Amino acid sequence: MGDSCCNKDSMGYITELITNELPGAFVHSVSIGDTEEDDRNAGFFGIVFDQIAQACTQIKNIALLRDGFNAVGFSQGGQFLRAYAETCADGPKIYNLVTYGSQHMGVADAPNCENKGDASCYLMRSILRNGAYLGWVQNRVVQAQYFKDPLNYELYLAKSLFLAHINNEIAASRNASYKEAIKTLNKLVLIKFGDEATVVPAESSWFGYYDDERKSIVEMENQALYIEDWIGIRWLNENGRLERITQDGGHMQIDEEFFKNEIIPKYLANAIITEEDESSLVKQ
């Protein structure tokens, strides 16, 4: 949200960290649009499923990724990469998926703006507060498409254009293929920031969320999504393929040493090898 694929002060910094630790690795950052500005704005405005379809096409066209890849998604990029895994049926498969501060169960408040001068972010917050479930808002504002009001769950189910679908929360239209796709992951690594203030509630990064009165947190294991295993999260956990990690710091304050010592060697270095003998990695 507010980042661009290749800016050296944004995702380009992550690319540099990875390639320094894994010489010869092929790293691809998903970009939406034709310019850096298009990509940044796509983090706030657009239809998420259309963006996932663009990412699917983009990744399918990269020969070095055809045998599969490890992936790391930051903030909303985490649930978007999970959506890729669920919906891009004919695309390369994700082996390990790492998500940092992601909103897997949605957000109950408009996300805070990390950059005080980010006009697009403040516009998003203003629109979201005027009615996240209005049709024109759902069709325009990215964050509205994973906004979940715990006090109006039925309205969320009726109006959500993205999150309710990838979480298989709508009983009449659950897609069994989403669950089967998630079960192909070798690892799903859920990282929550210890001082999270942007994602409300922070437990959404671990598939936890508010109860229907917004008074307490219902942890992952007590969510209907987990108990009835709508998307394979319970299966992953019971088979040792799901890990929950806390990293100190606020939202998107990436601890470089933690990333280099705990994430890259454990989840990104066990690369899928292509015929060109290159390691494959994608990040969002």
TrEMBL record:
Its EC number is 3.1.2.22. InterPro entries: AB_hydrolase_fold (IPR029058), Palm_thioest (IPR002472). It comes from the Eukaryota. The keyword Glycoprotein applies. SUPFAM superfamilies: alpha/beta-Hydrolases (SSF53474). One of its GO terms (molecular function) is palmitoyl-(protein) hydrolase activity. Keywords: Disulfide bond, Glycoprotein, Hydrolase, Signal. It holds the Pfam family Palm_thioest. The keyword Glycoprotein applies. Belongs to the palmitoyl-protein thioesterase family. This is Palmitoyl-protein thioesterase 1.
